[in-house]
Hints:
This protein is α+β, with helices and mostly antiparallel strands and 220 residues long. The chain has one domain: Maf protein (Alpha-Beta Complex), CATH 3.90.950.10. The protein has helices spanning 12-24, 55-67, 98-101, 110-121, 188-194, 196-211, and strands at 2-7, 33-38, 74-84, 131-142, 145-158, 174-176, 181-182, 218-219. Strands 1, 2, 3, 4, 5, 6, 7 and 8 form an eight-stranded mixed sheet that branches. Strand 4 and strand 5 form a beta hairpin. Helix 5 (188-194) packs across helix 6 (196-211).
Amino acid sequence: MHTQLFIATTNPGKLRDFRVAAAACVGQSFAGQFSIEPLAGLDSIPTPSETGATFAENACSKAIYYSRTAVGCIVLADDSGLEVDALRGAPGIRSARYAADAGFRPDLPADAANNLFLLENLQKVHNPDRGTRYRCVLAAAYNGKILTSAEGTVEGEILNAPRGTGGFGYDPFFYLPSVGCTMAELDLEAKLAISHRGHALRTLLVKLDETGHSTVNSRE
Length: 220
C-alpha cells in the first residue's frame, strides 16, 4: 500500500530533506510505503500568519490551514529552527526571520544575514558555552483536522566560521561533535539519518501507520 503525503513548503531545502527522509523509510516496519510531494498551487495560496508561541502551535496551525485547501489529502506542515542556549533559546521560532526582525543587513540574502547576526550576538560567547539544537515539529492534517504530530531535535555547537557547502540556513555553522563535522559537510542521506527533520518525519510516519491514518490517502 502506498500513501501520498503533501508537504506545505516552498523551501526547496526542506522539501528535499523530507523527500529523502521519506524514501529512506521504505523497507522499514511500516504496513505500507510513503512518498512526499509539494502541495500543488502553494504559491497561489495566501500565506497564513504564524502567530503561535511555539513550534508546535505554528506547525499545527499551518497544517490545518493548508489541508483545508486540499480536501481529501493528508497535508504536512512543519515549523523548525535553531535554539542557542547562550541566547536563551533564540532565534527559536523566529529563525528564518532572525536578522530581518532586527533590521540587520537587509542587503543580504536571508540565510547570510541570519548567520552573520547570529555570530555577532555570540561574539563574547566561547566554547563550551555555544551549545545549540535544531528543533522540528511536523504536523499532519486532513480536511482541517490534525491527525498527529511529531518532534525531532539534534544537539550541536555553533562555530565561528562556516564549514561545508551542503545544506541551507544555519547548517554551515552547526557543528555535530558526535560525527566531527557540520550539517553542511554531511551528504544528504547521512544528514537525514541524524537531523531534526529526519527524526520528526520517521516518528510521524510511525504514528500515521500505527493509527491507521496512512490509509486515508493510500492506493494499492
